[in-house]
Amino acid sequence: MTGSGARKERDGEQKPKQGHEQEVSAGTIALAVGILLLLLVPLAGKHMTHLVASALLLALAATSFNLLFGYTGLLSFGHALFWGVGGYTVAVMMARFGFGYVESVLAALVMSAVVGAAIGFLCVRHTRIYFAILTLAFGQMFYGIAVKWDFLGGSDGIYGLPRPFNSLELYYYVVLASVLVSLYVLRVVTRSSLGLSFMAVRDNAFRAEFLGIRVKVTRLQSFVISAVFTGLAGALWVLLETAIGPESMFWTHSAEFVFVTLLGGPSVFLGPLVGSFIYAFLADAAMSLTEYWLFVIGAVLIGIVLFFPHGVLGYTLERLGSRRGAVDGDGR
Length: 332
Description:
This protein is mainly α. It is 77% helix and 1% strand. It contains 13 helices and two strands; from the N terminus they run αααααβααααβαααα.
């Protein structure tokens, strides 16, 4: 081999590595800029602070939902149940028993895990539409209990809860820190051997079982982890709103998790986060302009499904990947 030929071969081997380093560097910069902007949100006023805090909690719930949907292949139509379980646990602990918010949030995590394990044990025996209908049925059952049980405030719910620190701005940073840490934990889970088991079960349950993966146990693990972090989002949301009602468990709230996940892209870990912020700001703008804001949201969903089947972030990354492949001479 000539010197020029060897040099070309070495250059060809270095291109993918350099491209990967540039991709990681760009992603790190984008993440740092995003976190910096989130830290500055309280400077924009109370409305923006509340809006971004709500979007962050929706993002946490949607990412938790996507652990079950995008990574394990199970579609839940009743995931708002765990949001409500976490929220009602905090409300009951504080309003009925006088506990502080730290103990109440910890109790919400335990209750979400217990309820998630019990319901998941029954649901993961089924897949596809049967799993979806079962989760929907459990969600509506708990919604009915919340409406009828006076201990939970009935249809009025529980309200008048104290907000931590008596400050929206300070509590915003609690929400921000909690969501960032939770997303990091979920990311570690998806990249672990357990996360690989989730994806193996999603892609081919029969082959995964043949390889020694206990399919039902793996699905149950995904279900419980998803329930716990969704419950955490609901618990933090109650302290943000200082109230909770049965509508937090209604199936339309579960549909929000599905919507923002599809909007951002279920095949990308940060897809639900992007979808949640798009949804929150779009809904806020639409509600300020028209009473038919749900029509606007529905039209957006139709457009996303038709033109961006992998979601906004998924489509963006695909386009960047194909452009990079064209530059590098590799279409993959």
